[in-house]
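Worked example (supplementary).
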Amino acid sequence: MEQWQGPTAAGEPARDGGERSGSAGEALELEKELQQGAKKPFTEVIRANIGDAQAMGQKPITFLRQVSALCMFPDLLKDPNFPEDAKEKARRLLAACGGHSIGAYSVSPGIELIRQDVAHFIERRDGGIPSRAENIFLSTGASDAIVTILKLLVSGEGRSRTGVMIPIPQYPLYSAALAELNAVQINYYLDEDKCWALDIGELRRALKDARQHCQPRALCIINPGNPTGQVQSRQHIEDVIRFAWEEQLFLLADEVYQDNVYAEGSQFHSFKKVLFEMGPKYSGSVELASFHSISKGFMGECGFRGGYMEVINMDPLVQQQLSKLISVRLCPPVTGQVLLDVVVNQPQPGDPSYQQFCQEKQAVLSSLAQKAQLTEETFNRAPGIRCNPVQGAMYAFPRVHLPPQAVQEAQALGQAPDMFFCLKLLEETGICVVPGSGFGQKEGTFHFRMTILPPLEKLKVVLQKMSQFHAKFTQEYSQLQLLGNSQKTAEKQGQ
Amino acid sequence: MEQWQGPTAAGEPARDGGERSGSAGEALELEKELQQGAKKPFTEVIRANIGDAQAMGQKPITFLRQVSALCMFPDLLKDPNFPEDAKEKARRLLAACGGHSIGAYSVSPGIELIRQDVAHFIERRDGGIPSRAENIFLSTGASDAIVTILKLLVSGEGRSRTGVMIPIPQYPLYSAALAELNAVQINYYLDEDKCWALDIGELRRALKDARQHCQPRALCIINPGNPTGQVQSRQHIEDVIRFAWEEQLFLLADEVYQDNVYAEGSQFHSFKKVLFEMGPKYSGSVELASFHSISKGFMGECGFRGGYMEVINMDPLVQQQLSKLISVRLCPPVTGQVLLDVVVNQPQPGDPSYQQFCQEKQAVLSSLAQKAQLTEETFNRAPGIRCNPVQGAMYAFPRVHLPPQAVQEAQALGQAPDMFFCLKLLEETGICVVPGSGFGQKEGTFHFRMTILPPLEKLKVVLQKMSQFHAKFTQEYSQLQLLGNSQKTAEKQGQ
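After joint prediction of all chains, the assembly is encoded as:
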């Protein structure tokens, strides 16, 4: 195993980008201290560091849990309080389980019926472009599937090591998995000045540089973006596909936020759909794996660890290896598979649960849209903070100006300057966000990632507090700077 | 990624030992053909190939599912049909979840409360020897934890590659994980003539040989044994610990069958307990990771993918790396964590569910004990089959005599002879078992692994059919041999 750098090593993200370490570890400590009655300038720790909707109070969608509870404890099938369509779905799913129980293993790629349902879901989503169950692999959350595909693609030593292109800023699963697999991480930078758009020129530059020292083989795209919240335009996706075709790169499309699109004029386009609409030249040859999850969207069922990937144009022998690879861990959690099935096979008009389901789903998504806008607007009113529109996903990734004196003090402590800022923020306000250095960013720029998940009223307060804190932080360190300067002047004059 | 050999490559087990491929793939095909109305010499395929109790009709333990259903759909907390102790457990667990929901991520090592409950469970099991929550890591089934620990231990290239000692026959997760990690698999053979006992002399031999070409660093023990069903004596465990101490090997104790001990005079001894009873010389220095799972025992909840490991005497810096390593996949399924909690924290005398819980648990375990004995006895009555006592776990691993003519025919087909036998068995009887070559066995010996999980009456029939099939198979191939011999004689005479 390779040794990893800690979260404070310059430029090196923690394995989890600090979601779970650094400021998050500190947050846990603070919570314990509060519980033990310690006096703090705040009464609760607000975890805006991780995309965990239900931890922030989002209620589970009733229908998803009803079907799951019926599968969990089939005696409930006799309970008149459960709606008939939930029972019907549960019966159908149980009939597809070994021994009619979710306690049996499924086959390694997941329950056949659910893979079919996923394929039908993809077909509907993509306007009828065919999808086949044999190309669907259910997974233990999207992370599991992403790591599996990377494992499959990566090989070699020295100059023949596999290179994988990832966006910067990125979701740190990628850097962590690549380090673990001894692959080369090839950074391509998203364009902050253009709403974190993908630039083909930048892809070319990154690829050309990388070819000097490794074998680039794959290109990862996160759309909608994490941590950056942009939604790629159809044109950009076409460009990426053309680029992948020209350079014979395997495409990994991380599309777990496909339901989370808020901005007017933004729309989710799946890589699969765009690929097929570009005609057989591309759709017959570009290798693609796309990923989805039940942890995000309107469901936010992170704890279930459910997801799937679809592979397109994979060499049949490689796909056989993929099947072997996933068989080691036996099967993804069946509870997650079952819940995924309800997500891809939702109540239809006329079903007893249809109305309630739609209302709950819509309430979650429109609340997120409202919070996305509020977040952007509030940050952009604050001097020294600049925030791109949160077009999708669940995060804002604003850029913050940090006074030179603060940067120096952080460096003297061996901390990344934005980690220094985030820790101070946490200590003074109880608000936990992730420093941009955990995701990668252009040299000399500073950011943090914050989820838009706190309930609206709480989010308003959080955003106010953060803006005020940044103003105070900036003022204090600028005064220090002035003080330092005047001291220097005084010393000079005294000489 | 390394290329793996297929299941039929001589001596090389499939990644899943054929549980899921080879004969299991064939079984799936046969099932489909039967469903489509094809005529076969049997009416159903019986999957005795995989340790999946509920797939074989074992009913889930009511209390486990009640608590899980309450956590899944907390509205049920108002339902008078659920017992009060189940509700109390569910409330306690929900209070420990982010946002009081099993849909939130847990921290990566698992919910703190459940880790504490696991530690208390281990203390009770081991007669009071202390266990600490910080050394407990919840996992996605035991396989996940085993692969994680191997990943942590393995490094190097060429002669400095890490070697890991595993029993032969073994559970093929080990060979698959070691191949994937580019580690050296060091085989030590269990002694079939002594009920698959572990022999220290054999451990020494294997280690000495391995030191010529790699760096042995760890020793895996499966107790009770899979696929071999033996339960190691306390004396043997002491010997192993002493050996590990002398040779500075990290011990991996796969104890997922700790509740599955049937034979009179056999008893489960945890490595942890024996280690601590051997005094501070050993308990203060031997590094140990032990594994448990909710997939086996009396619960058989394979689909939930729950389990834990406890690490002992791990270097604090290594344990930090372990924490980082597990953070990549975010967290084990919370549904599995919750169910695990009920397993380690069972109803107590006086609780409303106590009696029913004990009855159900006892019914499963005594039925398994009965089936273990039946299996051994029936096989040992069949000429050409010899079966060690099934002291524990869920499998018989009988040795079968295969006529030389059958061995030759298999080899001509490029099949392992026991794979050839198992495929014929499947085609003629619908019974699916795993060839011994999937687990490793002494050169020139042939076995198969069969679960004892089918319901008693069905198991009786299965065992009869298998004995009859083996007799017929032996007779047919012996006649072929005679025929071949007499043809040769006739040819010679005709010359």
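Two points are worth noting when inspecting this output. Chain A touches chain B through 71 residues (CB under 8 Å). The radius of gyration of chain A is 24 Å.
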